[in-house]
Specification:
Blueprint lengths: L1 E4 L14 H9 L3 E5 L10 H7 L2 E3 L2 H7 L2 E3 L17 E4 L7 H9 L3 E4 L14 H19 L20 E5 L3 H12 L3 E6 L2 H10 L4 E5 L2 H9 L3 E4 L14 H5 L6 E4 L20 E4 L2 E4 L9 H22 L1 H7 L1 H6 E4 L2 E2 L2 H7 L8
Parallel strand pairs: 1-2, 1-4, 2-3, 4-5, 5-6, 7-8, 7-10, 8-9, 10-11, 11-13
Antiparallel strand pairs: 6-14, 12-13, 14-15
Helix pairs in contact: 1-2, 5-6, 10-11
Length: 367
């Protein structure tokens, strides 16, 4: 199979779909790889490293897309990439289609077999290709919040861990999954007081066992969420329903009760956001204010730390890319239920129930 690795074109997206090491593994398995020139530079990988791994370097993105049977990338196709979509193309990337109706339409109109990293799911419910970027985003969320709490960045001027005799920052983490757990660990490590809110009581029991520091847990209900948000200096939105739009658990009324200069980092924004006042932002203009509360809602947060993110992501995606290349996509789907769950569009139909329900399509199961 010929695999294409194009350069990412989303605003300030510095990741790349595959490292030279992953390319070498595909070449060793007998496949061909075309990498767009400069695709890995922002992640610290030169064209020469890809060439040494056995890849062909293409100057024109059209050559990568048109020659590849499978495109291996990071983020959903952008508007000026729609012209490269075609029937029979296999696309492996983060799609988040529940929040991307136009991308969904284009994939359907062009008959693309689109496999979304965020819905590749194991039998135990875990999401192996979403997990590494959730870990990155969760840890980044606290770094970002600490930065925007600083007065020069419009915040209330509080230090995350305080100092002796001065209270630390109060952080409310809405959702105790991978993002929330990583955010809580970093915040606790910096000395903040953390409140973790989640629906799953077993998850809260687990977190109570593995975390240490100044924290408490709350069962998720509207009153507990409202209380946690009102007293927080930082709110981390970390809610996930795989493939579906995130529920709006933090309402505008809750945001209006927050202290001036507080910070919201809505990591769930890829799936529409779990804060009612959130709207997607870009790295080039990452924040906006609502009622003097800073909102950070960048849809590709891990792109800001591309070296770490690219290595973590390609480590996870390589086994699946190899399986699809070795078996072809339909045999891979038949033999691996996790890959089957990752298919969001096939033969002009939406095949992921959560996406179909979010966007009003009929879900047509895979044949």
């Amino acid at each position: 199979m010929i695999i294409g690795v194009p350069k990412e074109v989303k605003d300030n997206e510095y990741r790349v779909g595959a490292t030279p090491g992953c390319v070498a593994a595909l070449i060793r398995a007998g496949h061909g790889v075309i990498v767009q020139s400069g695709a890995g530079v922002e992640s610290g990988f030169s064209d020469k490293e890809y060439q040494d791994a056995g890849a062909t370097i293409a100057q024109d993105p059209a050559e990568v897309w048109n020659k590849a049977q499978m495109v291996w990338k990071v983020k959903e196709p952008q508007e000026h990439e729609f012209k490269f979509l075609r029937e029979g193309l296999i696309l492996n990337t983060y799609l988040h289609l529940a929040a991307e109706p136009e991308v969904t339409k284009q994939l359907l109109d062009h008959g693309v077999t689109a496999i979304a990293y965020e819905t590749v799911q194991l039998d135990n419910g875990s999401l192996p290709l979403l997990t590494p970027m959730s870990e990155v985003a969760g840890r980044m969320a606290i770094q970002i919040a600490a930065r925007f709490l600083e007065r020069e960045n419009g915040g209330c001027g509080k230090l995350m861990g305080g100092v002796p005799g001065v209270r630390p920052v109060s952080v409310a983490v809405i959702g105790g999954g991978i993002v929330g757990t990583n955010a809580a660990r970093v915040a606790l490590g910096m000395g903040a007081h953390v409140t973790i809110v989640d629906l799953n009581l077993d998850r809260l029991r687990y977190l109570d066992d593995v975390l240490s520091g100044n924290y408490n847990t709350l069962a998720a209900n509207p009153l507990n969420i409202a209380e946690a948000v009102e007293y927080a200096d930082v709110v981390i939105g970390a809610v996930l329903l795989a493939g579906a739009k995130a529920p709006k658990l933090v309402t505008r009324e809750m945001v209006n009760k927050m202290k001036p200069g507080s910070v919201i980092v809505d990591v769930a924004i890829d799936q529409g956001g779990c804060v009612e006042t959130s709207k997607p932002t870009k790295h080039s203009s990452p924040t906006f204010k609502v009622n003097d509360v800073i909102h950070y809602c960048v849809t590709n947060m891990p792109g800001a730390v591309p070296r770490t993110s690219t290595q973590a992501l390609s480590n996870a995606t390589l086994p699946y890319a190899l399986k699809i290349a070795n078996l072809d996509v339909m045999n891979a789907i038949k033999t691996d239920p996790a890959i089957a769950r990752g298919v969001n569009t096939y033969n002009g139909n939406v095949t992921c129930k959560a996406v179909a329900e979010s966007l009003g399509y009929k879900c047509i199961p895979l044949p």
